Amino acid sequence: MGVHDFEVVTADGSLQSLGDFSGKTLLIVNVASKCGLTPQYEGLQALYGEFQERGLEILGFPCNQFGGQEPGTDEEIQEFCSTNFNVTFPVFGKLEVNGSSAAPLFVHLRSEAPGDFGPGNGFLYEHVKNSRPEAIGTDEVKWNFTKFLVDTDGKVLRRYEPTTTPEQIREDLDGLLPAA
């Protein structure tokens, strides 16, 4: 099973097959509007602008599981992304990434790329260690703006923890995507 085998809910409530993105390199990100990392939207949009023509799709998935930092409706989230960051990549319907109600896509992403979240994640490691100690050492998504890189066949290649900025991913994308 690969990422292309999943369906997700769009912001308007319809279902979309991730098979529609077959042949594209994907960067799948759980996002939030009221997080200290929310400015990463700007970097994600810059990556999208730079690499979309070379086959990159960024897929944003709002999640309210971390400090209630995505309280809005799907409509409000779309408006926020457009107005504040000129986001043009798809931002889907709000979902859960951990726990018994986690979206199957994120269960798969987590199992394929459990992550390497440790003290090197600085302030965020300390925050998660204090607020969600049960998450340390598990495959759970630790916070907003965790990113998963998926190849053109739907295979999960890598997980980037929230403190990895979009700019730090640029070199990986440049090496993975076909030349312009």
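Next protein, fold it too.
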Amino acid sequence: MSQIISPSVLSCDFANIQRDVEMINNSTADWFHVDVMDGVFVPNISFGFPVISAIKKHATKPLDVHLMIANPDQYIEAFKKAGADWLTVHYEACTHLHRTIQVIKANGMKAGVALNPHTSVEVLEDILPELDLVLIMSVNPGFGGQKFIPHALKRVARLKELINKTGSSALIEVDGGVNLETGKQLLEAGADALVAGSFVFNSPDPTQTIQDLKAL
């Protein structure tokens, strides 16, 4: 399987968001990665429902929505209505993770769980068969453009072992500091999907940069 490339629209030009959505539509990218932050779970605030709905209106590819928010359960239905196809919640933000996953699936979305850099992948062992995706954060969540944390490579490899052991079909996605060098290392460690924000949107030719990631 060719790796999934999910450009992070957090790094796009908000004054030209439709232009950047069309660029992703016309590129070899597979998903749109949409980071949602509430200023509580992480020290930053990003998109609300109107922006997600606007992206969905123009997007021709699935919306891969990553919730960096406290109490995600109360908004699951609203994110479905806004256009999320994949909905990922943080392990650290969910008291009743199994129930949260069930609600995401009941609303017709694929269910993912994200892990902060300090959280062991072992915490997901029991629930892996229920998941469609695990998102490994290779930076501390909250801001784009951070430096890649190398320990993420070991975490991806260990998670791959657990997925195989439990018979899970969950994809491994990685977000943070992804470029051609780290992307290649992550794929070799077992990652299935790469999120890239500033590396794509700050490049001279974002379409070509996406193609380069796809070709790794």
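About the second fold: The chain has one domain: 4-214.
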